[in-house]
Design brief:
Elements lengths: L15 E3 H9 L8 E3 H23 L6 H24 L2 H4 L18 H19 L3 H25 L14 E2 L16 E2 L2 H22 L6 H19 L7 E2 L2 E2 H23 L14 H8 L30
Antiparallel strand pairs: 1-2, 3-4, 5-6
Helix pairs in contact: 2-3, 2-6, 3-5, 5-6, 6-7, 6-8, 7-8, 8-9
């Protein structure tokens, strides 16, 4: 029996909105198929938009052009979603390759299954490409993105709640999560009404706490040259290592430890290395958001330089004599 303070899972009807069924019932249409808008997808999109808005604001404060974040975000989102899905499929092969009819589900991102570490790995490649095209410093963009990335992940975990997935081990804590016994991920042998650790909620709280701490640190010290990114890696890695260790969903194991726990250890180590490198190589502040020669003012100066051809550079015709017949039309040097 569920206790009064337990967290209910959303109704299955909340997982998606069937646009086709709504059109057919509302307008008497007979449209075939089923076009669905999934709550998980909406949470992911809201998270992306929030991250873009936050990053844009932080870049603008440093002198970057308004809206330039879009030029980088397009690359980051495409690569990030591809990397997140690829990593999830690789670490959960039984969910997609047990039978031929499951293969197509590799493409069904809206059903859930975007691994953050895969998204970070390929997403970083997308950010690097975007920065190369726009002239932004990679570390400047990464530092500006750090709090927005935490917010985006918080929204993503809310999507897991709508999908009734990624819950933790059984618990008798009053805030346990209610999961229906018919759920495919429900552990066998447990009685109906068992409560589980709401790992989605733990991660949401952890992410938002990380945002608050990071913003506080940035007020106390210059978190530049990749330091905000380093904080993100350490903070998220520590939290994810614990959250991952209490989850019940299957995952690849290496030496008895889940893959994402190993990735969390790697994230923490990488974050510490970035801190050390930044402390040794960059003691001052970042001179600007752009690499040398790529700032808008520098590009404008290059266009307006004395070596640029203009209409004033046309050779001038000099008139000699009073009549048109005696006009010397040779160019004057």
């Amino acid at each position: 029996m569920f206790v009064p303070l337990s967290i209910p899972s959303p109704s299955a009807a909340w997982q998606y909105f069937d646009v086709t069924a709504w059109l057919n019932s509302t307008f008497g249409a007979s449209l075939p198929g089923s076009l669905r808008i999934h709550a998980y997808a909406i949470c992911i999109l809201v998270g992306i938009v929030a991250a873009v808005i936050i990053t844009n604001h932080r870049l603008n404060r440093q002198g970057a052009e308004k809206g330039i974040v879009i030029d980088v975000a397009i690359w980051a989102v495409i690569f990030g979603i591809a990397g997140g899905r690829l990593f999830h499929v690789i670490t959960h092969p039984a969910d997609y390759f047990s039978s031929p009819d499951q293969y197509i589900h590799v493409l069904f991102v809206w059903e859930g299954g975007l691994a953050i570490y895969g998204a970070l790995l390929l997403g970083a490649v997308g950010v690097w490409l975007g920065c190369r095209f726009t002239g932004l410093r990679f570390t400047v963009f990464a530092d500006a993105l750090a709090p927005g990335l935490l917010v985006a992940q918080a929204f993503g975990r809310l999507g897991n709640w709508f999908n009734h997935e990624l819950f933790g081990m059984p618990t008798d804590l009053p805030w346990g999560l209610e999961i229906e016994s018919t759920n495919a991920a429900y552990p066998t042998g447990l009685p109906e009404g068992t409560l589980f650790h709401p790992t989605f909620l733990y991660e949401i709280v952890w992410m938002l706490a990380g945002v608050a701490i990071l913003l506080l640190l940035e007020k106390k010290a210059p978190m530049q040259w990749g330091r905000s990114l380093a904080f993100y890696l350490v903070w998220y890695g520590i939290g994810r290592a614990w959250f991952e260790s209490i989850r019940t969903d299957p995952s690849l194991l290496f030496f008895g430890i889940r893959t994402n726990v190993w990735m969390s250890f790697f994230a923490v180590v990488l974050g510490i290395v970035l801190f050390v490198v930044a402390a040794r190589r960059h003691t001052g502040t970042v001179p600007g958001p752009y690499v040398p020669g790529r700032a808008p003012s520098e590009r404008a100066s290059a266009v307006d330089s004395d070596d640029t051809y203009t209409e004033n550079d046309e050779p001038e015709l000099v008139t000699v004599g009073a009549s048109d017949d005696n006009t010397d039309r040779s160019p004057r040097p």
